[in-house]
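Why does this matter for the project? Reviewers at the last site visit asked to see concrete outputs rather than summary tables. In response, this paragraph embeds two records directly. Each consists of the residue sequence and, immediately after it, the corresponding structure tokens. Nothing has been edited or filtered.
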Amino acid sequence: MHLSNTIAFMRIRFAYLLIVLFLWSCEKDNRLTFEPLEFISENCSHCPKVTIHIPKALDDKPISSVINNSVREEVISLLIYDDEIEASTIEEAILSFKNGYLELKEMYPDEPVGWEANIDGKVTYEDKNILTIQVNAYSYTGGAHGFSSTRFLNFDKAKGLEMETMELFKDPLEFQKFAEGKFRNQEKIPAAGSINATGFMFEDDEFYLPQNIGFTQEGLQLFYEQYEVASYADGPIILTLNYKELEHYLKFKKEP
């Protein structure tokens, strides 16, 4: 290869590299920066065990405060047991949980089982328009078994606000009909039969969307909690829908 051709080839490669780096930088700039936050209750023989891991948005943008406030409020709502404490921080909510346990222990001193709460939050999806955080929680406050829950928090990054579930769709009723067909297919429920034909417990024998719907890398996830439409033994019922199928229904176009 002649020297001139070699130089030209190197210039092309360098230009291509600059383009790749520019595109990568643009994509990276659309992503928010998070750090992990950890809260662990004091270690004592008469205290409930509380462990919390959640993401904290660090960027100096309005959406960061909205995200952090929403996650904090969600964690607080999962821990509040003492009505006398109006918790505004996670630390106060942990204290409320502890006080609830101590009050019960005082009433029933021979109760051998302690309380515990584990809360874990993670970013499940982000593009330039949308960010979703999934908060998984497990708590045990006595009884035959503990309580598990999953909550999706969906955020409109451009508007800087948290979205209600139905705000994700152009026409929620039209999407509901589409989702029912997918649900029946997944759960092998006859198309013309009762939605409860195979043992589900939809109220009034009519299909409805779950309280929790969120964006994940695998697709849009419809998450029915335990007891929401089935028995505790059945666990959560999850329907994951491919984004390609949802272009007609979603308000937001999924970005690559």
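We now turn to the second protein, recorded in exactly the same manner.
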Amino acid sequence: MARLPVFILWLMHFLPFRALVWSGNVFGWFLYIVAADRRRVSLINLQKCFPELSDVQRMRLVRDHFKMFGRGFIERSILWWSSGARINGLIRVEGVEHFDALAGRPAILLTPHFVGMDAGGQWIAQRVDTVCMYANQKNRYLSRLLFEKRSRFGKQRLYSRQRGMRPILKGMREGMPFIYPPDQDQGVKDGAFIPFFGVAAATITTLPRIAQATGALVLPCITRLLPGAAGYVLTFYPAWENFPSGDDIADTRRMNAFIEERVREMPEQYFWLHKRFKTRPEGQAKIY
């Protein structure tokens, strides 16, 4: 069943970018209509994170997010099958001096879950070998496809979460930056409940611990989808100073606060379909 949609996606990479943007918006609107459960999850997330908005404003934001999500999905056709030159032509980079300054130093590229993150990832992959983690899909064909397409530039090392952090640390010690998306609910076995928009969110405290173990600099990078057919902006922020501080909880609070700031800048592009607050502190009722 998965091969036909993938074939259609492959065909689409031949289209002009403007046509892909239009198709993504349409696909996102279709998902908004049919994916009732994810629509409900998104709305609950926004109720928790933006209580100051009216119901109408939040519903409009959910619709806008689905359009952006649809774009992010359809535009993967370019990221997976088009040339590096075409991808680079769609991406404007800001703060590249911060990225260049990492050459030869251990680094963690902090990449929260915005819909354009894969576009930024492919730009990075064309310039430096990286190490990162991925989640195995239930469909073996899709797992293999995602692995191949995310590692088609350079010598990227991708490891499943089931293998733990050991191969990641090994790659970092060999000089490869670690691409790290930290902002999903994976329970509190290796984390704690850290506020995210004022709501207790199960958050992995891995970032400061890896930085401490490897001496790595933390460099946030965010990719924004631009309106129309203008492409993307990949922004590298200055490497964090005084990080880690020795207080894992305080450092993880700093990480969540940074992500909050970026979400407020483009709330329609954050990944609201994920059940960010699924794990609850003991005694608190389920949210979803």
